[in-house]
Amino acid sequence: EADTSKSMKRVSSSGKSLSDGMHSTGTLLYKNGFLVRKVHADSDGKRRPRGKRGWKTFYAILKGLILYLQKGEYRPDKQLSDEDLKNAVSIHHSLAMKASDYSKRPNVFYLRTADWRVYLFQAPNAEQMQSWITRINTVAALFSAPPFPAAIGSQKKFSRPLLPGTMSKLSEEEQMRSHEARFRAISNDLGDLRSYPPDRKVKGREMEEYRQRDEYLDFEKTRYGTYIMLLRAKIRSGEEDLALFESLLLEDSSLQRAHSSPTLQDSSQASQVSQMSSSRDGGKRVSGSTPHTLPQS
Q1: What whole-number distance in Å separates Cα of residue 168 and Cα of residue 215?
Q2: Where in this chain does the record put each PH domain (predicted)?
Q3: What digits encode the pLDDT tens for the residues 44-63?
Q4: Which domains, ranges and CATH numbers included, belong to the chain?
Q5: Rounded to whole angstroms, how far apart are CA atoms 79 and 200?
Q6: CA 17 to CA 216: how far, in whole Å?
Q7: Where are the alpha helices (DSSP H) in the chain?
Q8: pTM assigned to the model
């Protein structure tokens, strides 16, 4: 199992869009190895048709904020094909987590991207699965640019805010403070939302709007909480090399929480570790399945 760990240095300060940098050869390589992929949902979480959800084996290469998926053996001098670029996944503002409820295959983790695409990835073993989860989340935590300011005015119809695909220019400490501010704001919004649930008689569009807002805020709280845990652990460790950082997470009991796979059913975990005051929701949901609970298919 090939695995390359590079130091966590700022990859770019140009602010270029990730799509502009897809062909970049200067971006640091953070991890590589074989993964088996299944596309579970397209953008906005829309379920992919059953016939298009098959498992496919790729050689995965995490360079910067892009997870490239190549067919066949990896060679450093091999050019990325158009199909490779089409299969590439941007991990900005994404969250990887263990698919603990998926029983059909072992060592499977789930990746939800900024536009709410959902992927399942199977790693060769449990150690590699956890390593991929930690690397993806750490890179996303370090380099996802702060979100755009909220639009002025009230939105009647819920729509998820567009998240920037550029590389963050902030230092690690500034990046962590940015994540903490977002975590506090989202925790407050989620608390406010759950303080005034719709009347039980309410059905249809209004209930669906409430459910979508709740699901979005709950996921974002978990995502930012996970980012904060990893950045705090990384800053505390003072370690730049990702492989060494991972080993420190395993060895140091005070850092192990950051290495554990995030779950969306216990969003209070993020609150506890980041030591922020926020309403404890116990992971209760209004309706529908939790975002990380994937139907068996």
Answers
A1: 26
A2: 28-141
A3: 666 766 767 789 999 999 99
A4: 27-143 (2.30.29.30), 172-274 (no CATH)
A5: 57
A6: 24
A7: 82-87, 126-143, 172-195, 205-237, 242-251, 256-259, 268-274
A8: 0.77
